[in-house]
Amino acid sequence: MRVYLDNNATTIVDPQVKLAMEPFFxxxxxNPNSLHSFGSETHPYLKLAMEKIYAGINAPKEDSVxxxxxxxxxxxxxxxxxxxxxxxxxxxxxxxxxxxxxxxVIAAAKHLESLGVKVTYLPINEEGLIDVQTVKDSITxxxxxxxxxxxxxxxxxxxxxxEIAQVCQEHGALFHTDAVQAVGKLPINVQSFPVDYMTFSxxxxxxxxxxxxxxxxxxxxxxxxxxxxxxxxxxxxxxxxVPGIVGMGKxxxxxxxxxxxxxxDVKELRDLLEDELLKIKDTFVVxxxxxxxxxxxxxxxxxxxxxxxxxxxxxxxxxxxxxxxCASEDLESxxxxxxxxxxxxxxxxxxxxxxxxxxxxxxxxxTIGVVKKAVERLRGISSSYAYVPKSLQEAK
Length: 396
What we know:
alpha/beta; Aspartate Aminotransferase, domain 2; Aspartate Aminotransferase, domain 1; 2 domains; 16 helices; 14 strands
Protein backbone atom coordinates (compact mmCIF):
# COMPACT_ATOMS: atom_id res chain seq x y z
CA MET A 1 0.00 0.00 0.00
CA ARG A 2 1.09 3.57 -0.71
CA VAL A 3 -0.06 6.20 1.79
CA TYR A 4 0.45 9.94 1.34
CA LEU A 5 0.58 11.80 4.67
CA ASP A 6 2.62 14.84 3.61
CA ASN A 7 -0.24 17.12 2.60
CA ASN A 8 1.23 20.18 4.32
CA ALA A 9 4.00 19.99 1.71
CA THR A 10 1.66 19.64 -1.27
CA THR A 11 -1.65 18.02 -2.13
CA ILE A 12 -3.05 15.93 -4.94
CA VAL A 13 -4.86 18.01 -7.56
CA ASP A 14 -8.61 17.53 -7.18
CA PRO A 15 -9.87 15.69 -10.30
CA GLN A 16 -12.48 18.39 -10.85
CA VAL A 17 -9.72 21.00 -10.77
CA LYS A 18 -7.74 19.09 -13.39
CA LEU A 19 -10.86 18.84 -15.54
CA ALA A 20 -11.50 22.58 -15.28
CA MET A 21 -7.92 23.36 -16.34
CA GLU A 22 -7.62 21.05 -19.34
CA PRO A 23 -9.26 23.26 -22.03
CA PHE A 24 -6.71 26.03 -21.41
CA PHE A 25 -3.68 24.09 -22.53
CA UNK A 26 -4.53 23.14 -26.11
CA UNK A 27 -7.93 24.67 -26.90
CA UNK A 28 -8.26 28.13 -25.35
CA UNK A 29 -4.55 28.84 -25.15
CA UNK A 30 -4.40 32.50 -26.23
CA ASN A 31 -2.64 35.21 -24.25
CA PRO A 32 -5.42 37.05 -22.33
CA ASN A 33 -3.75 40.38 -23.16
CA SER A 34 -4.03 39.80 -26.89
CA LEU A 35 -6.77 41.66 -28.75
CA HIS A 36 -7.83 38.75 -30.97
CA SER A 37 -10.45 36.16 -30.09
CA PHE A 38 -7.89 33.56 -29.01
CA GLY A 39 -7.04 35.83 -26.08
CA SER A 40 -10.41 37.36 -25.34
CA GLU A 41 -12.23 34.02 -25.18
CA THR A 42 -10.40 33.24 -21.91
CA HIS A 43 -11.70 36.37 -20.16
CA PRO A 44 -15.03 34.95 -18.86
CA TYR A 45 -13.22 31.98 -17.31
CA LEU A 46 -10.61 34.18 -15.65
CA LYS A 47 -13.33 36.44 -14.28
CA LEU A 48 -15.23 33.47 -12.85
CA ALA A 49 -12.07 32.03 -11.30
CA MET A 50 -11.23 35.35 -9.63
CA GLU A 51 -14.77 35.60 -8.29
CA LYS A 52 -14.35 32.17 -6.68
CA ILE A 53 -11.05 33.20 -5.10
CA TYR A 54 -12.55 36.44 -3.74
CA ALA A 55 -15.54 34.51 -2.40
CA GLY A 56 -13.31 31.86 -0.81
CA ILE A 57 -11.61 34.40 1.43
CA ASN A 58 -14.66 36.71 1.62
CA ALA A 59 -12.75 39.63 0.10
CA PRO A 60 -14.80 42.66 -1.03
CA LYS A 61 -14.43 43.82 -4.63
CA GLU A 62 -12.65 47.01 -3.62
CA ASP A 63 -9.75 45.00 -2.19
CA SER A 64 -7.10 43.44 -4.44
CA VAL A 65 -6.22 39.80 -4.97
CA UNK A 66 -3.14 39.56 -7.18
CA UNK A 67 -2.16 36.24 -8.74
CA UNK A 68 1.47 35.23 -8.22
CA UNK A 69 3.51 32.07 -8.80
CA UNK A 70 3.26 30.99 -5.15
CA UNK A 71 3.15 32.23 -1.56
CA UNK A 72 6.95 32.49 -1.48
CA UNK A 73 6.79 35.15 -4.19
CA UNK A 74 3.88 36.83 -2.42
CA UNK A 75 5.72 36.87 0.92
CA UNK A 76 8.83 38.35 -0.64
CA UNK A 77 6.71 40.95 -2.40
CA UNK A 78 5.27 42.14 0.92
CA UNK A 79 8.62 42.40 2.68
CA UNK A 80 10.53 44.06 -0.14
CA UNK A 81 7.79 46.54 -0.93
CA UNK A 82 7.52 47.47 2.74
CA UNK A 83 11.26 48.08 2.74
CA UNK A 84 11.14 50.40 -0.26
CA UNK A 85 7.96 52.22 0.73
CA UNK A 86 8.28 52.58 4.49
CA UNK A 87 11.82 51.81 5.64
CA UNK A 88 14.16 53.12 2.96
CA UNK A 89 12.37 56.46 3.20
CA UNK A 90 13.12 56.64 6.92
CA UNK A 91 9.48 56.56 8.02
CA UNK A 92 9.92 53.25 9.84
CA UNK A 93 12.87 51.01 10.75
CA UNK A 94 11.46 47.87 12.38
CA UNK A 95 9.60 44.66 11.48
CA UNK A 96 8.35 41.78 13.61
CA UNK A 97 8.05 38.11 12.60
CA UNK A 98 7.56 34.91 14.56
CA UNK A 99 10.61 32.69 14.91
CA UNK A 100 8.78 29.76 13.29
CA UNK A 101 7.66 31.39 10.05
CA UNK A 102 8.08 29.68 6.70
CA UNK A 103 11.66 30.05 5.33
CA UNK A 104 10.40 32.49 2.67
CA VAL A 105 9.44 34.88 5.47
CA ILE A 106 12.44 34.26 7.71
CA ALA A 107 14.87 34.60 4.81
CA ALA A 108 13.20 37.81 3.62
CA ALA A 109 13.37 39.22 7.15
CA LYS A 110 17.05 38.30 7.47
CA HIS A 111 17.74 39.92 4.09
CA LEU A 112 16.19 43.17 5.32
CA GLU A 113 18.14 42.79 8.55
CA SER A 114 21.34 42.69 6.49
CA LEU A 115 20.27 46.02 5.01
CA GLY A 116 20.01 47.61 8.44
CA VAL A 117 16.37 46.92 9.32
CA LYS A 118 15.67 46.08 12.95
CA VAL A 119 13.96 42.69 13.19
CA THR A 120 12.26 41.18 16.24
CA TYR A 121 11.70 37.40 16.18
CA LEU A 122 8.73 36.49 18.38
CA PRO A 123 9.15 33.32 20.48
CA ILE A 124 6.58 30.58 20.80
CA ASN A 125 5.65 28.93 24.08
CA GLU A 126 5.96 25.29 25.10
CA GLU A 127 2.69 24.51 23.29
CA GLY A 128 4.07 25.93 20.04
CA LEU A 129 1.80 29.00 20.21
CA ILE A 130 2.37 32.76 20.15
CA ASP A 131 1.24 34.90 23.07
CA VAL A 132 -0.34 38.14 21.84
CA GLN A 133 1.36 39.93 24.73
CA THR A 134 4.74 39.33 23.08
CA VAL A 135 3.53 41.36 20.10
CA LYS A 136 2.35 44.15 22.39
CA ASP A 137 5.72 44.14 24.14
CA SER A 138 7.66 44.27 20.86
CA ILE A 139 5.72 46.72 18.69
CA THR A 140 6.87 50.35 18.56
CA UNK A 141 5.85 53.52 16.67
CA UNK A 142 8.67 52.66 14.23
CA UNK A 143 7.32 49.17 13.42
CA UNK A 144 6.45 49.02 9.74
CA UNK A 145 5.22 45.43 9.51
CA UNK A 146 4.23 42.50 11.68
CA UNK A 147 4.14 39.12 9.93
CA UNK A 148 2.71 36.07 11.70
CA UNK A 149 1.53 32.92 9.94
CA UNK A 150 -2.08 31.87 10.47
CA UNK A 151 -1.29 28.17 10.89
CA UNK A 152 2.12 26.69 11.55
CA UNK A 153 3.19 24.30 8.81
CA UNK A 154 4.97 21.90 11.19
CA UNK A 155 2.59 21.61 14.15
CA UNK A 156 -0.71 22.80 12.68
CA UNK A 157 -0.95 25.29 15.55
CA UNK A 158 -3.47 28.06 14.93
CA UNK A 159 -1.94 31.42 15.79
CA UNK A 160 -4.09 34.29 17.17
CA UNK A 161 -3.88 36.39 14.01
CA UNK A 162 -7.16 38.21 14.64
CA GLU A 163 -5.91 39.60 17.96
CA ILE A 164 -2.46 40.36 16.56
CA ALA A 165 -4.00 42.27 13.67
CA GLN A 166 -5.97 44.39 16.15
CA VAL A 167 -2.78 45.20 18.07
CA CYS A 168 -1.10 46.25 14.81
CA GLN A 169 -3.99 48.48 13.84
CA GLU A 170 -3.94 50.16 17.25
CA HIS A 171 -0.21 50.89 16.89
CA GLY A 172 -0.19 51.99 13.25
CA ALA A 173 1.72 48.95 11.95
CA LEU A 174 0.78 46.91 8.89
CA PHE A 175 -0.12 43.26 9.41
CA HIS A 176 0.64 40.35 7.09
CA THR A 177 -0.28 36.70 7.56
CA ASP A 178 1.00 33.74 5.58
CA ALA A 179 -2.24 31.75 5.29
CA VAL A 180 -0.82 28.88 3.23
CA GLN A 181 -1.79 26.26 5.83
CA ALA A 182 -5.09 27.93 6.77
CA VAL A 183 -6.92 28.09 3.43
CA GLY A 184 -9.01 24.96 3.03
CA LYS A 185 -8.68 24.05 6.71
CA LEU A 186 -10.30 27.04 8.44
CA PRO A 187 -13.04 29.50 7.48
CA ILE A 188 -11.32 32.56 5.98
CA ASN A 189 -12.93 35.98 6.19
CA VAL A 190 -10.59 38.92 5.58
CA GLN A 191 -13.42 41.32 6.45
CA SER A 192 -13.68 40.00 10.01
CA PHE A 193 -10.35 41.41 11.21
CA PRO A 194 -7.91 44.10 10.00
CA VAL A 195 -5.45 42.02 7.96
CA ASP A 196 -3.60 44.17 5.44
CA TYR A 197 -1.88 41.41 3.46
CA MET A 198 -2.54 37.69 3.20
CA THR A 199 -0.70 35.14 1.07
CA PHE A 200 -1.53 31.59 -0.03
CA SER A 201 -0.71 28.89 -2.60
CA UNK A 202 -3.15 26.74 -4.60
CA UNK A 203 -1.21 23.50 -4.26
CA UNK A 204 -1.89 23.41 -0.52
CA UNK A 205 -5.64 23.00 -1.08
CA UNK A 206 -5.76 20.54 -3.98
CA UNK A 207 -5.01 23.08 -6.70
CA UNK A 208 -2.11 23.15 -9.17
CA UNK A 209 1.48 23.97 -8.28
CA UNK A 210 3.02 27.21 -9.48
CA UNK A 211 0.13 29.56 -8.70
CA UNK A 212 -0.66 31.56 -5.57
CA UNK A 213 -1.98 34.94 -4.53
CA UNK A 214 -1.45 38.08 -2.50
CA UNK A 215 -4.46 39.73 -0.90
CA UNK A 216 -4.11 43.50 -0.32
CA UNK A 217 -6.64 45.58 1.59
CA UNK A 218 -7.87 48.73 -0.15
CA UNK A 219 -5.59 51.65 0.66
CA UNK A 220 -2.67 49.35 1.55
CA UNK A 221 -1.58 48.52 -2.00
CA UNK A 222 2.11 47.73 -2.50
CA UNK A 223 4.46 48.73 -5.28
CA UNK A 224 5.11 45.93 -7.82
CA UNK A 225 7.85 43.41 -7.19
CA UNK A 226 8.21 42.91 -10.97
CA UNK A 227 8.13 45.63 -13.61
CA UNK A 228 7.52 45.45 -17.33
CA UNK A 229 3.83 44.81 -17.94
CA UNK A 230 0.29 45.88 -17.23
CA UNK A 231 -1.11 42.54 -16.09
CA UNK A 232 -3.13 42.32 -12.86
CA UNK A 233 -3.86 46.03 -12.90
CA UNK A 234 -0.17 46.82 -13.20
CA UNK A 235 0.68 45.12 -9.90
CA UNK A 236 2.26 41.97 -11.28
CA UNK A 237 3.97 41.72 -14.66
CA UNK A 238 4.05 38.53 -16.69
CA UNK A 239 1.64 36.67 -18.93
CA UNK A 240 -1.26 35.34 -16.91
CA UNK A 241 -1.16 31.65 -16.02
CA VAL A 242 -4.69 30.97 -17.29
CA PRO A 243 -4.84 27.22 -16.46
CA GLY A 244 -3.36 27.92 -13.04
CA ILE A 245 -5.80 30.71 -12.23
CA VAL A 246 -8.77 28.65 -13.40
CA GLY A 247 -7.45 25.73 -11.36
CA MET A 248 -6.95 27.82 -8.23
CA GLY A 249 -10.46 29.23 -8.56
CA LYS A 250 -11.96 25.75 -8.82
CA UNK A 251 -9.76 24.46 -5.99
CA UNK A 252 -10.86 27.34 -3.76
CA UNK A 253 -14.51 26.57 -4.50
CA UNK A 254 -13.94 22.88 -3.71
CA UNK A 255 -12.03 23.74 -0.52
CA UNK A 256 -14.87 25.89 0.79
CA UNK A 257 -17.46 23.23 -0.08
CA UNK A 258 -15.35 20.57 1.68
CA UNK A 259 -14.56 22.59 4.80
CA UNK A 260 -17.00 20.78 7.09
CA UNK A 261 -15.60 17.44 5.94
CA UNK A 262 -12.06 18.70 6.54
CA UNK A 263 -12.85 19.94 10.04
CA UNK A 264 -14.78 16.86 11.15
CA ASP A 265 -14.10 13.72 9.09
CA VAL A 266 -10.41 14.42 8.53
CA LYS A 267 -10.07 15.36 12.20
CA GLU A 268 -11.58 12.01 13.20
CA LEU A 269 -8.89 10.18 11.23
CA ARG A 270 -6.17 12.48 12.58
CA ASP A 271 -7.32 11.83 16.13
CA LEU A 272 -7.40 8.06 15.53
CA LEU A 273 -3.79 8.16 14.35
CA GLU A 274 -2.73 10.43 17.20
CA ASP A 275 -4.46 8.36 19.90
CA GLU A 276 -2.72 5.21 18.71
CA LEU A 277 0.69 6.86 18.44
CA LEU A 278 0.40 8.26 21.97
CA LYS A 279 -0.06 4.73 23.27
CA ILE A 280 3.60 4.17 22.39
CA LYS A 281 5.86 4.81 25.39
CA ASP A 282 7.92 8.02 25.30
CA THR A 283 5.92 9.59 22.50
CA PHE A 284 5.02 13.28 22.50
CA VAL A 285 2.82 15.52 20.32
CA VAL A 286 3.38 19.27 20.06
CA UNK A 287 0.40 21.64 20.55
CA UNK A 288 -2.93 20.47 22.04
CA UNK A 289 -5.17 19.11 19.30
CA UNK A 290 -7.97 21.63 19.94
CA UNK A 291 -5.48 24.40 19.14
CA UNK A 292 -4.46 22.85 15.81
CA UNK A 293 -6.01 22.50 12.38
CA UNK A 294 -7.71 19.19 11.82
CA UNK A 295 -5.13 17.44 9.66
CA UNK A 296 -1.74 17.82 11.34
CA UNK A 297 0.34 15.95 13.93
CA UNK A 298 3.95 16.73 14.88
CA UNK A 299 5.06 13.75 16.95
CA UNK A 300 8.35 12.81 18.56
CA UNK A 301 9.47 9.30 19.45
CA UNK A 302 12.21 9.48 22.06
CA UNK A 303 15.38 7.75 20.97
CA UNK A 304 14.57 7.65 17.24
CA UNK A 305 16.12 9.99 14.70
CA UNK A 306 13.52 11.50 12.40
CA UNK A 307 15.38 10.42 9.27
CA UNK A 308 15.52 6.82 10.47
CA UNK A 309 11.77 6.78 11.01
CA UNK A 310 11.20 8.32 7.57
CA UNK A 311 13.33 5.59 6.04
CA UNK A 312 11.20 2.86 7.59
CA UNK A 313 7.99 4.65 6.61
CA UNK A 314 9.16 5.16 3.05
CA UNK A 315 10.14 1.51 2.75
CA UNK A 316 6.55 0.68 3.71
CA UNK A 317 5.16 3.12 1.12
CA UNK A 318 4.20 5.86 3.59
CA UNK A 319 5.07 9.52 2.90
CA UNK A 320 5.55 11.78 5.92
CA UNK A 321 8.12 14.48 6.68
CA UNK A 322 10.54 15.74 9.28
CA UNK A 323 11.99 19.15 10.05
CA UNK A 324 15.36 17.49 10.35
CA UNK A 325 17.59 17.33 7.28
CA CYS A 326 20.86 15.65 6.40
CA ALA A 327 23.08 18.37 4.98
CA SER A 328 26.58 17.09 4.29
CA GLU A 329 27.51 15.48 7.61
CA ASP A 330 25.45 17.81 9.81
CA LEU A 331 22.09 16.77 11.20
CA GLU A 332 19.73 19.70 11.74
CA SER A 333 17.04 19.56 14.39
CA UNK A 334 13.42 20.55 13.82
CA UNK A 335 13.18 24.36 14.20
CA UNK A 336 9.84 24.18 16.00
CA UNK A 337 11.21 21.65 18.48
CA UNK A 338 14.11 24.00 19.13
CA UNK A 339 11.79 26.98 19.48
CA UNK A 340 9.64 25.31 22.14
CA UNK A 341 12.76 24.41 24.09
CA UNK A 342 12.56 20.65 23.56
CA UNK A 343 15.37 18.59 25.02
CA UNK A 344 18.18 17.70 22.64
CA UNK A 345 17.15 14.04 22.62
CA UNK A 346 13.75 15.08 21.22
CA UNK A 347 14.77 17.89 18.87
CA UNK A 348 15.89 15.46 16.15
CA UNK A 349 12.98 13.07 16.46
CA UNK A 350 9.98 15.02 15.15
CA UNK A 351 7.84 13.50 12.40
CA UNK A 352 4.95 15.35 10.76
CA UNK A 353 1.90 13.50 9.54
CA UNK A 354 -0.51 15.68 7.55
CA UNK A 355 -3.77 14.27 6.17
CA UNK A 356 -6.19 15.45 3.47
CA UNK A 357 -9.79 14.84 2.51
CA UNK A 358 -8.50 11.98 0.34
CA UNK A 359 -6.97 10.12 3.29
CA UNK A 360 -8.83 6.91 4.16
CA UNK A 361 -9.34 4.98 7.39
CA UNK A 362 -7.64 1.97 5.82
CA UNK A 363 -4.54 4.08 5.17
CA UNK A 364 -4.48 5.35 8.75
CA UNK A 365 -4.84 1.87 10.21
CA UNK A 366 -2.03 0.64 7.97
CA THR A 367 0.16 3.57 9.06
CA ILE A 368 -0.45 2.85 12.75
CA GLY A 369 0.78 -0.70 12.31
CA VAL A 370 3.86 0.36 10.36
CA VAL A 371 4.82 3.08 12.87
CA LYS A 372 4.53 0.73 15.84
CA LYS A 373 6.77 -1.85 14.14
CA ALA A 374 9.26 0.86 13.14
CA VAL A 375 9.46 2.22 16.68
CA GLU A 376 10.12 -1.25 18.05
CA ARG A 377 12.83 -1.91 15.46
CA LEU A 378 14.56 1.45 15.70
CA ARG A 379 14.56 1.62 19.47
CA GLY A 380 16.00 -1.87 19.51
CA ILE A 381 19.10 -0.60 17.69
CA SER A 382 19.17 2.91 19.21
CA SER A 383 22.09 3.70 21.47
CA SER A 384 20.50 6.99 22.54
CA TYR A 385 17.27 5.35 23.70
CA ALA A 386 19.24 2.76 25.62
CA TYR A 387 20.79 5.55 27.72
CA VAL A 388 17.51 7.29 28.58
CA PRO A 389 17.08 6.98 32.38
CA LYS A 390 14.53 4.33 33.35
CA SER A 391 12.54 6.97 35.27
CA LEU A 392 12.02 8.87 31.99
CA GLN A 393 11.15 5.73 30.04
CA GLU A 394 8.46 4.93 32.62
CA ALA A 395 7.21 8.51 32.91
CA LYS A 396 4.25 7.85 30.66
